[in-house]
Amino acid sequence: MKQKLNLNQSLQWKMNQSLVQSINILQFSSGELLEYIKEIAKENPLIEEVNSDMDWVQYRPASPETFSIGEINTAEMSLYDQLKSQLFTISYPESLKPIIEFGIDSLNEDGYLEIDLREWADKCDTTIENAAYALEKIQSLEPAGIGARNLQECILLQLKQANNFEPFVEELLENHLELIANADLEAISEIGGIAAERAGFIIESIKLCHPKPGKLLEPPEPDYIIPEASIFKENGEWKLSFYRWSTPKITLNPTYQRLNDPMHEATDYLREKQKEIEQLQQAIGYRGNTIELVIRKIMEKQYLFFEHGTYMIQSLTLREIAEELGLHISTISRAISQKYVQTIHGVLPLKFFLQRGVKNENGTTASFAIKQLMKEMILHEDKQSPLSDEAIKRKLMNEFQIEVARRTVMKYRDQLRIPSSIKRRENRRN
Fold first, then answer.
1. Is pLDDT at 405 greater than 80 in this prediction?
2. Boundaries of each RNA polymerase sigma factor 54 DNA-binding domain copy (predicted)?
């Protein structure tokens, strides 16, 4: 009886161990899965090769607008793109937009202008006055200090925006940097005709200025992403094709053949390693099958997105997918973690397709879709009379039958990093 109990406990332990392995492997990205298998292969002599060639089944080339396999996840915009995206917040003659954009493209990675006004004007076939005007507009963008031509100007721009500028500071930066470096309050007080306390505040303000403002817009270190599968349209139907690296193939060592020899002294050891491989293959298969179920369900629920683009993204939750597939919500969460698919809209994380929604008379609209509509409204608004949050709320209702509260509009606008209508009007006046 005791022996039977021990056997059952041993089997239960092995089953639990196998389950834990399947759960862990399910949440691995393709890269992590490959590394995990390679680590096991180091300890298992039966594994001769792990085949995960960077090749793919039924390859469909990406369009110029999408990422290619193995490309960088560039969801974060470059310095230049981020600055250009701010242009809709300021007022300027449309005819000068190419001149302003040329100036932005002439900044170095630290945010400094690398050409003089004469060269700028010549290359844009315009006047020096127009180039100077364009520079003024660039220097009004965020972060403060962008578009400076030297360190002194960079600091002055930041002090002015923070309302910490004193007229004598310009002379201080031009001719008395050593006084700032040495924090000589007495000398600075005398030059500026101000109290020592005020001089100390100015020195601290200068020290807080960023010498390379362009670095503040620098995207984080890029991650190379490898999609699990490709979603593409063929003969009018949306199809799903998995890349080979999503399910690595394990080739066994010829030693495996000797397992049938009962006299072989290493039989028990090799049989144990064989079971290890079988469990690993089952876990890899479970991972692949679960991810496929989830992606196919996403394709079904987000059909309008694939057909028409981002404005048609639908609200969708982990719970909905779990209930329709008859799986636990934690299983779905692991299945989408760190997983990407290649689509005609680019390489997208599976989490992108999970969208919270806002209920309205036509059902539920995904918050992402509402944000996209808001961006378009603000992009094309009257520059002299920007849309208030209340006006955006009314337009969403009148034009798209989407009913949201004003505070929701404000929250989405903040998430989009778009200033209020008052701030947008002020920026365009400056």
1. yes
2. 268-425
Which segments of the chain belong to CATH 1.10.10.60?
Answer: 357-429
Tell me the C-alpha distance between 372 and 13, whole Å: 51
Of the ranges 130-139, 188-197, 411-420, the best mean pLDDT one: 130-139
**Residue type for position 17:** Q
Helices (H), 176-239: 177-181, 185-192, 196-208
Distance, CA of 226 to CA of 246 (rounded, Å): 9
The Cα 322–Cα 318 span in angstroms is 6
Cα separation of 354 and 68, whole Å? 23
Extract the tokens encoding 360: 């309205």
Please state which CATH class domain 357-429 belongs to.
Answer: mainly alpha
On whether the CB atoms of residues 46 and 252 are closer than 8 A, the answer is yes
- Residue scoring higher pLDDT (192 or 337): 337
**Whether the predicted pLDDT of 288 surpasses 80:** yes
pTM: 0.52
| Helix, strand or coil, per DSSP, at residue 69 | coil
Strand pairing report for 363-366 and 357-360: antiparallel
Identify the CA nearest to 223 among candidates 416, 408, 71, 54: 71
Q: Three-state secondary structure along 93-162?
A: CHHHHHHHHHHHHCECCCCCECCCHHHHHHHCCCCHHHHHHHHHHHCCCCCCCCCCCCHHHHHHHHHHHC
143 with 210: CB under 8 angstroms?
yes
- Provide the mean pLDDT of the chain: 79
